[in-house]
Amino acid sequence: MKTYTPKPGDITRGWWVIDGEGQHLGRLASEVAKLLRGKHKPMFTPFLDTGDFVIVVNAEKIVITGKKAQQQVYYRYSGYPGGLKERTFEEMRERNPAKALELAVKGMLPKNRLGDALHGKLKVYAGASHPHAAQQPQAFNVLSSRRDATATEL
After folding, report:
1. Gap between the Cα atoms of 154 and 150, Å rounded
2. pTM for the model
3. Euclidean distance between CA atoms 17 and 2, whole angstroms
4. Which of 6, 73, 105, 152 could form a disulfide with 10 if both were Cys (CB 3.0 to 4.6 A apart)?
5. Average pLDDT of 65-86?
6. Do the beta carbons of residue 16 and residue 36 sit within 8 Å?
7. CA-CA-CA-CA torsion sign (43, 49, 62, 65)
8. All structural domains of the chain
């Protein structure tokens, strides 16, 4: 039996829209990363881009638990002495609400050219509207916690 490798013509890309209102940052980021990689498809191949495009709206309403809003620190370095900048989650949310989710998803993707290509298929918007209506994205329901999943299964 030979190993199946999908050809470029076999790969179909869908568009998903996810509402981030009330979603936990890490749980949402892991679901988005799975969709971008294509792990929800039977033709998933680790070294190929078989994933879909993902649109996340209401990124400004994403929540994190505990004291992480004050304690979570994001760093960036210019490469020069004294060029290390740091921001907390609260400051990041005030300046660019979509950036925190983009960084969380990027950290869950491969650290190579494939990861860069996958990250390019992620579209994050702070508000409820997006300019991708022509692609006819389907709504994707992400459960915010396992407790919610067991409550809906009953």
Report:
1. 6
2. 0.88
3. 36
4. 6
5. 96
6. no
7. positive
8. 15-102+132-145 (3.90.1180.10)
